[in-house]
């Protein structure tokens, strides 16, 4: 039997997110390099949406979302690590199409 590939479909209000690679080492406004291992207050992370369930209303594939990575479930697919979360766990979205926003841009 040949190796069958199965397409992943997210269910209900679930979102599959890949954490952005630039969320590692950071620079302060003064130019000081802050390593990814430095402990700070609970820090939210940006990630790219790779899949959404049928009941997700405000997030689309390709959007960037802001969320708490510590409260999510992790899954590995084809060597890549993704996080699975509910839509309600997303704090903000960054997208090109917007009806109303903060006026701040990434």
UniProtKB/TrEMBL annotation:
Organism domain of life: Bacteria
This protein's UniProt keywords: Chaperone
GO MF annotations in UniProt: ATP binding; protein folding chaperone
A Pfam family: Cpn10
InterPro entries, per database record: Chaperonin_GroES, Chaperonin_GroES_sf, GroES-like_sf
Gene3D superfamilies per the UniProt record, alphabetical: GroES chaperonin
SUPFAM superfamilies listed in its UniProt record: GroES-like
CDD domains recorded: cpn10
Subunit comment: Heptamer of 7 subunits arranged in a ring.
Role summary: Together with the chaperonin GroEL, plays an essential role in assisting protein folding. The GroEL-GroES system forms a nano-cage that allows encapsulation of the non-native substrate proteins and provides a physical environment optimized to promote and accelerate protein folding. GroES binds to the apical surface of the GroEL ring, thereby capping the opening of the GroEL channel.
Similarity annotation: Belongs to the GroES chaperonin family.
Protein name in the entry: 10 kDa chaperonin
